[in-house]
Specification:
By secondary structure, this protein is mainly α. The chain has helices at residues 11-28, 39-57, 69-108, 127-142, 147-159, 168-210, 216-250, and strands spanning 114-116, 124-126.
Length: 251
């Protein structure tokens, strides 16, 4: 079966372009875009999202069909670029909690224990960061915030209409703002642990000067871990609430 360029017109072309945008977004969207999710599952979700969005956004596409293969390739490339932008921004938003987990693990002495992070495409990560990342994903689904990803795709047709020149300056600005906001949130979530860690280390530093014969490292390591777990138990709910609020605002 061969599909010629004149055959790619009307509804067929619309569904193809919508699939290019939504499929590129789902390819990077956490946790659907993670390596442990089968490719067939991502493909089925992209097809389902295309079937749902195509009838509602068909009016946004140009009424004239592409005249040659180059014009068609440009349209598909623009749709894929918008989808990659949406998926990348979502993954950057999720990196805020990974930054917080890394800082918490470093401050509490748990950074030496690293395991496979299922949300970062097979990379090694600190245990605390992996726990917070998985908890953040679970809470996103529990709070129905994953629906905002579909809303982001639908809203992108108003901000970046198909066939129009890509607003590269605006795309770069929103990427920079998202990266800076994610890192700032990560430091804010880990701020209590940094304060308590500094206080504990300062106290043991004074103790080491007063009692040189004391093996400070063997005493400070368990105390740091204990303080870290106690602070996390007290502040975990507040931390995840701030993260979910940041996620919903950015999306």
């Amino acid at each position: 079966m061969h599909i010629t360029l004149p055959g790619l017109s009307g509804a067929v072309l619309v569904y193809l372009l919508v699939f290019a945008r939504s499929g590129a977004m789902l390819m990077l969207l956490p946790p659907i875009g993670d390596a442990n999710v089968p490719a067939r599952v991502r493909l089925m979700l992209a097809l389902a999202l295309t079937m749902a969005l195509a009838p509602t956004v068909s009016a946004s596409y140009p009424q004239t069909n592409p005249q040659n293969v180059t014009a068609l390739f440009v349209l598909i490339a623009q749709e894929v670029t918008v989808g990659v932008l949406l998926g990348s921004l979502t993954r950057i938003i999720m990196s805020a909690i990974s930054v917080a987990g890394f800082l918490i693990a470093s401050q509490s002495g748990l950074s030496y224990a690293e395991t496979l992070d299922p949300t970062s495409r097979g990379q090694q990560g600190a245990v605390v960061g992996n726990f917070l990342s998985m908890l953040g994903v679970v809470l996103i689904f529990a709070a129905n915030l994953h629906h905002m990803a579909i809303g982001a795709v639908a809203g992108s047709y108003h901000l970046i209409p198909p066939g129009a020149p890509l607003p590269t300056s605006d795309m770069a600005e929103i990427a920079i703002n998202t990266v800076s906001g994610a890192f700032a949130l990560g430091f804010q979530l880990a701020a209590p642990f940094l304060v308590f860690g500094f206080a504990v280390n300062a106290g043991f530093g004074v103790l080491a000067r007063m009692m040189p014969q004391l093996q400070v490292f063997f005493v400070a390591a368990p105390v740091n871990i204990l303080v870290g777990f106690v602070v996390m138990t007290l502040l975990l709910g507040t931390m995840m609430t701030l993260f979910l609020s940041f996620y919903s605002n950015q999306m």
